Each structure stands twice: as C-alpha cells, then as structure tokens.
C-alpha cells in the first residue's frame, strides 16, 4: 500500500513575561510591561497565520501557544497592560517629555526597515532622517507632527497586511501623515480588537478539526535544567557549570499542571501535545510529562541523532540521507508508561525561518514543495510499508518580519501548491499518531539531554553571565523553599515570580551568542522577577540583584549570531548585518596597526550564500589608499581534495599563507569584476563560472553562492582574504587566523 507523504507543520508562538512583577496583580489595576512585543506581534503574527490556513481546508496544522503569551494577550485585551511604547502613543503630542522624545527617536524604528518601514513613505522619510542626520538632529529639529506621525506609524506598520482591507485601517494607511491623538487612540482600539480574536479563532479551528493547539510548560522553562543543571554536561562534558547546582525537579510538575489547567480553561478540552521549551528534553523530565497526561512531545533532529548515535548527513540538494530514521514518530518507553515523540527536520524548518524571506515568494514556496516531493519520491523508492511523517517545526512569529507583506504571498503560494499536490498530505501530529501509532521505540533512559540548538544547552548555561544568573536563581529558589508556609494558595506572588524567573528567555540573552537592542531590559526583568520572590516573602533583597548580571556594551569581535540576508549594494545596511560575525581590523580593538585603512570585517551565511563585508576608513579609495585586488581563498580542513598555493608573488612562507587552498575568488575593486577559480593538479588553478555578487560603495559587500563552492551541508571550511597589487602580495586578514565557516 503506498501512502502519501504526511507533513506536520508545528508553529511555536511564544513571548517571555514582559510584565514587571508587583505592577498590579489584579485585572482592575494597570500593569506595567517593559516591552511591547506581545501587543505588536499579536497584531501581526498570530491571527493571520491561521486565517490564511483556514482558506485551505484540506491542510491541517499544529500551533503551539505558550501560556505566558496567552496571559499577556489577555492583559492587553482587558486594557490593563501598558508598555512605555503604548504610553508614549497615548500621550498628547504637546505633553511628551524630553525623555519620551529621546525614547521615541531611539526605539520607534525597532523593526526590519526593508519590510515594515520602507513600504510606507512617511515612516521611511522619518527613518531616513534619523539614519542620515542622526538622533541629535531629530531631537533638535522635529516638530510635534513628526512625533505624532512616528507614534502612529510604529503601530500601523505592525498591523498585518491581511487586515489592510478593514475600512479604518485602509483610511489610516492612505492618510499617511498628520495623525492626531484621537487617531492613535483608535489604532490602539483596533489592536485590542485583533488581539481579542486570536484565542477564539484557534479554538474554533481546533473544534473544526483543521488545527491542533498544543501547549508548553507554564513560563517556558528549560525542564532538563530545572531537573538538574548538570545535564548541561551530557552534550558538553567539560562545560563550566554554575557554582551552585540547581536541582528543583519538583518545579517541573508545577509548570506542567499550570499549563494543562490553563489550556483546559481556554480551549474547553485537554491538550494532547506538549512543545517542551526550546525543544529541550532529557530522560529525567519524561515521567512528569507522562503523569500529567500528555500523549506526545517534539524535539529536534540533533537530539535524535545523539540518541541514535547517528549523524544526519545531507546530499548536495540538502535532502537527508537515511530519511527513514528521521521521518517517523518514536515511542519513548519508561516505567511510568510510554510517550510518543516526533523530531523536526532542522534544515526545512530553518529554510522557512531564515532563508525563504530573501527569495521571491513563488520561488521559495516551490523550493520547499520540491524538497517535500523529493522526500515523497524517496519514500516510494524505499517501498516502505509504514508511512513517513516529515515534521517542520519553528518559531511562528519572528521570521515573518523579514518577509515581504509579512509572509502572506509566500504562505499563499505554499498552501496553494500543497493543496494541489496529491502525494503530500498535511496533518496534525495527533491525527497522524491516532492513525499510525509509533512502532519504533527508544528506551526513555537512552534519550539524549539536549535542545534544538546543536543538541546541547550551551545557549542557556555554561557562559559566565548565564551561570551567574543560574546562581542568582538558585539562591532565590532556596529562599522560597525556606518558607514552607508560602504556598501557591496563600502567596501566589512569590510563586508567580519564581515561574517567571525560571523562563528560558533571560538565559538566552545573557553572555555570548545572542544580542538585541534590549539586552539591558531583559537583564532588568530577570532581576525584577527574582526581586519579586524576596519581596513577596518579606525578605531583604540581596544587593547583587540591584546590579546588572553583566555589562551591556557594544561587542567588538564576535562570531555570527544567526542567518543574515544582506542586500549587496555596498552600503552596509546595519540591520542587514546585525547578526553577522565581526572582526575588528584597524582602530583601538584591531590587531593590525591603527592606521589600517580596513577597519572591520563582517561575515555570515544563509542557506543560499556566504557573505563578506569590509568597512574602510571614510573616503579611502582602492588603488590609492589600499590595494585594488582582493582574493578570497577557501581551505577545507581534514578533507582530501586537490589544492594549490596562493597564486601571487612575494607570499610570505608562514601559516596560514603557506597553506594550500581549493577555491579562489579574485575581486578587482576598481572595476568590481570577479574571476573564480578552482585548484587543479600540479598546483594549477582552473577558471570556473561564478554567480558571486560584489558591490563597493561606502563599504565592500560580497555574496558567494554555496552552489559555486559545490560543498554539501554541514561541511566545514576556512577562509582567508588576501590583498594584492598587480599580482603581488600586500597584506592579508584576519591576522594569524582563518575565518571558520560551516555550510548550513
């Protein structure tokens, strides 16, 4: 019997608790939120995703709604949640304080400008003024209507295009400028109206059978680390751990029970699936999940790989080899009973999350459907009796900011193609498991302890700042334990503050690896939640909680923090490169002498290209102030292949310049022309075709397609940049090092 290829999309909708504790525990009082993302993502990302899906009734999907997100949506719907952005919007223009004006100029462009600002002429005009003339100029020269318009546009731009045909919204978009306080009050009412539809629409579609709604532990904690912070050493045996071991496994059933009851109340039924926060799992957490009544959980292919001791290789097209291991549910066997688990295809999930936004919508949709058709073909060729299930699971809110029209054209093209393709069938996870229960088994104790990030917990523990935060949490948890009279019934404030502090998001932002414009606020919120525990217990607050967990300053050198999709125009758009790796070359932090014309090197990747950017001293020109020939040379460590030395005169006989390389891209900075070559026998270099892009304006930007290099996913490579003048070596960067890259 031949089965269609079953596909389970799981969209994860989550926001941490931005509510400052103690700012109002009842709905009758206003509650102070530090950041506006629940309100803004609520108007842009949660409702439209399922309304679009509803137009394609054959397609079934799963959406995960985190309790801490729903709680905050309910505050905004009730009109009791106020964040500094909203307060500014509802303040009459003439009453805006100097501090508020500074805040507005600094933060009311916090959005991807290509997709959310540039399409709106008035918003774009204000953005360009700030970028080109600076914040101080805006503060000195802007009139009240400029502030009024910016306050309105910051909210309008975050309303999803699906709602632009609403008569009021259409009028505002057309109006463009001269927004009044009354307009902004109406925009706020419209936001609350959209927010109020989110949960009822999910409930309606679940009752109709097109949607399965799942939940997450109450405030999105990393359950394996609540059980034991030493579980960090399962994947990284030499991990530096916090001074104090956090072992509060008793908090796990509390988070699960609260999520379960919360779900039952909002959706009128019990949940079947659990999205463990950050897809983090371990043997220790399984009994509590089973005892609470959950039927299935999901995690990442890296966790399955570690569990089976199998690395998932991909072919040149990016398709998994030995797909039958990944594309099936498993049954975790424990003494408490069994639990089903599905593992997501990491690459397909990442393509939606990080890469398709940079492609034309129809081409991106066709690429994803093409991958699924290739998997369906492999399934037919395998003549498997058992059906395959491809799980695509990802963040359902953040990626759409980078798509034109919030992803609407992409999703419409994708859903239409999937509706028309008879060999592909979209299902909810529970639907699949009810018809085809898992037959493959994994002993519960064999399950790897890890998350969706590299199958480890290094994103949340192991860094000095992250470990310090764990020590602070341990102290506060022990203080709560020393007050047995403080139960959840008679001291809910203490427990709510604890649950909030146990959330994963604070640890994500601490230390190296991730950074945002709001790191200091996340730091403050984490400490405020801990503060709330001591306050609720009438205990003195430790002095260290009054100081930031870490110093928040602009970083110098750092490795890439995510995928990037820069537009190659030589202008070095800061938003395009904000997640790129960065190496200081000249200036105070640089390793080259201070007079270096090249100030900074940026590098990063997505699934399509490798990117490089060089920043020069202002006014510097190629051929005059620095050499006009730039050579990019790729070296493949521990790989057997034909290599050749750098084909320049006067190359020093010192590492890494005396290495042999496999690919060479020569860029003439005067003509912006390129020549691409590959190493051949007898130390020769042979010309090859390249689709690399180069642009030199205020900086140099390069994009080199992975297709040029013809290397498979997960392949390690190293890069060096060499400057030359008429074929003679002049200099190289970065000094005494190679840039490490891994093909996504």
Q: Kindly state the mean pLDDT as a whole number?
A: 93
The helix fraction, in percent, is: 25-40%
Total count of helical runs of at least 4 residues: 25
Q: What percent of residues are in strands?
A: 15-25%
Structural class, from secondary structure content? alpha/beta
Low-confidence stretches: 23-28, 587-594
Morphology: globular
**Termini separation (Å)?**
36 Å
Give the C-alpha Rg: 27 Å
Number of strand elements: 24
The description of the largest β-sheet is: 7 strands, antiparallel
Descriptive account of the structure:
This protein is α/β, with parallel strands linked by helices. Helix content is 36%, strand content 18%. Helix 2 (67-78) crosses helix 10 (181-196) and helix 21 (464-481) runs antiparallel to helix 22. It is globular and about 80 Å long. Residues 23-28 and 587-594 have low confidence and may be disordered.
Outline of this structure?
This protein has 744 residues and is of the alpha/beta class. The protein is built from 25 helices and 24 strands. Strand 8 and strand 9 form a beta hairpin.
Keywords, please?
five-stranded parallel beta sheet, 36% helix, 744 residues, 24 strands, seven-stranded antiparallel beta sheet, globular, alpha/beta
SSE layout and pairing:
Layout: E1 5-13, E2 31-32, H1 37-54, E3 61-65, H2 67-78, E4 81-82, H3 84-89, H4 98-107, H5 113-117, H6 121-133, H7 135-141, H8 144-156, H9 167-175, H10 181-196, H11 198-208, E5 211-214, H12 223-227, H13 251-267, E6 273-274, H14 286-292, E7 296-300, H15 301-308, H16 323-326, E8 330-334, E9 337-344, H17 346-355, H18 361-382, E10 389-395, H19 408-420, E11 424-426, H20 429-435, E12 440-443, H21 464-481, H22 492-501, H23 505-509, H24 519-536, E13 581-584, E14 598-605, E15 609-616, E16 629-635, E17 663-668, E18 673-680, E19 684-688, E20 693-696, E21 699-705, H25 706-709, E22 716-725, E23 728-733, E24 739-742
Parallel strand pairs: 1-3, 1-10, 1-11, 2-4, 3-5, 6-7, 7-9, 8-12
Antiparallel strand pairs: 8-9, 13-14, 14-15, 15-21, 16-17, 16-22, 17-18, 18-19, 20-21, 22-23, 22-24
């Amino acid at each position: 019997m031949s089965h269609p290829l079953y596909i389970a999309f799981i969209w994860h909708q989550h926001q941490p608790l931005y509510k400052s504790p103690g700012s109002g525990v009842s709905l009758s009082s206003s509650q102070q939120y530090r950041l506006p993302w629940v309100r803004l993502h609520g108007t842009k990302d949660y409702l439209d995703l399922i309304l679009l899906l509803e137009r394609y009734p054959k397609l079934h999907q799963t959406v995960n709604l985190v309790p801490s997100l729903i709680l905050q949506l309910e505050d905004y719907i009730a009109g009791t949640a106020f964040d500094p952005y909203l307060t500014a919007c509802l303040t009459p223009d003439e009453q805006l304080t100097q501090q508020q004006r500074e805040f507005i100029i600094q933060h009311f462009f916090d959005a991807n400008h290509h997709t959310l600002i540039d399409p709106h002429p008035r918003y774009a005009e204000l953005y360009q003024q700030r970028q080109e003339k600076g914040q101080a100029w805006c503060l000195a020269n802007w009139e009240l209507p400029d502030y009024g318009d910016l306050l309105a546009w910051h909210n309008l731009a975050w309303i999803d295009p699906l709602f632009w045909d609403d008569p009021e919204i259409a009028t505002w978009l057309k109006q463009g400028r001269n927004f009044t306080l009354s307009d902004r009050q109406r925009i706020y009412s419209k936001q609350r109206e959209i927010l109020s539809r989110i949960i009822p629409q999910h409930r309606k579609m679940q009752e109709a059978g097109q949607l399965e709604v799942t939940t997450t532990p109450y405030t999105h904690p990393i359950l394996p680390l609540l059980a034991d912070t030493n579980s960090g050493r399962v994947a990284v045996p030499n991990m530096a751990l916090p001074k104090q071991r956090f072992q509060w496994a008793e908090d796990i059933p509390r988070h699960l029970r609260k999520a379960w009851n919360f779900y039952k109340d909002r959706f009128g039924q019990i949940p079947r699936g659990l999205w463990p926060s950050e897809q983090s799992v371990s043997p220790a957490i399984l009994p509590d999940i089973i005892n609470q009544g959950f039927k299935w959980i999901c995690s990442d292919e890296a966790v399955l790989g570690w569990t089976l001791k199998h690395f998932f290789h991909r072919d040149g097209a990016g398709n998994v080899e030995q797909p039958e291991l990944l594309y099936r549910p498993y049954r975790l066997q424990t003494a408490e009973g069994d639990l089903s688990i599905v593992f997501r295809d990491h690459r397909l999930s990442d393509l939606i999350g990080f890469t398709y936004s940079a492609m034309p919508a129809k081409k991106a949709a066709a690429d994803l459907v093409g991958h699924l058709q290739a998997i369906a073909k492999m399934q037919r060729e395998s003549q498997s009796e058992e059906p395959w299930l491809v799980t695509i699971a990802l963040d359902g809110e953040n990626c759409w900011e980078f798509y034109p029209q919030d992803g609407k054209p992409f999703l419409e093209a994708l859903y239409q193609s999937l509706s028309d393709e008879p060999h592909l069938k979209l299902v909810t996870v529970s639907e699949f498991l009810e018809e085809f229960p898992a037959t493959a088994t994994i002993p519960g104790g064999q399950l790897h302890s890890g998350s969706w990030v590299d199958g480890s917990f290094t994103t949340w523990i192991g860094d000095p700042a992250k470990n310090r935060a764990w020590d602070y949490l341990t102290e506060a948890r022990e203080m709560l334990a020393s007050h047995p009279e403080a139960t959840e019934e008679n001291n809910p404030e203490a427990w709510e503050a604890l649950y909030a502090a146990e959330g994963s998001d604070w640890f994500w932002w601490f230390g190296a690896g991730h950074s945002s414009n709001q790191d200091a606020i996340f730091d403050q919120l984490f400490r405020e939640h801990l503060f709330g525990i001591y306050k609720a217990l009438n205990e003195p607050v430790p002095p260290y909680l009054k100081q930031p967990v870490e110093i928040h300053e602009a970083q110098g050198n750092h490795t890439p923090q995510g995928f990037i999709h820069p537009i190659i125009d030589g202008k070095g758009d800061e938003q395009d490169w904000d997640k790129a790796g960065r190496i200081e070359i000249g200036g105070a932090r640089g390793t080259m002498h201070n007079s270096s014309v090249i100030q900074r090197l940026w590098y990063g990747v997505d699934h399509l290209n490798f990117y490089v950017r060089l920043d020069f001293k202002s006014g510097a020109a190629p051929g005059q102030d620095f050499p006009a020939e730039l050579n990019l040379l790729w070296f493949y460590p521990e790989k057997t292949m034909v290599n050749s030395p750098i084909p320049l005169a006067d190359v020093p006989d010192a590492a890494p310049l005396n290495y042999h390389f496999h690919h060479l891209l020569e860029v003439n900075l005067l003509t912006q022309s390129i020549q691409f070559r590959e190493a051949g026998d007898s130390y020769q270099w042979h010309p090859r075709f390249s689709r690399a892009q180069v642009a030199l304006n205020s900086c140099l930007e390069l994009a080199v397609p992975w297709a040029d290099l013809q290397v498979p996913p997960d392949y390690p490579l190293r890069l060096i940049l060499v400057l030359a003048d008429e074929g003679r070596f002049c200099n190289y960067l970065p000094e005494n090092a190679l840039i490490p890259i891994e093909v996504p």
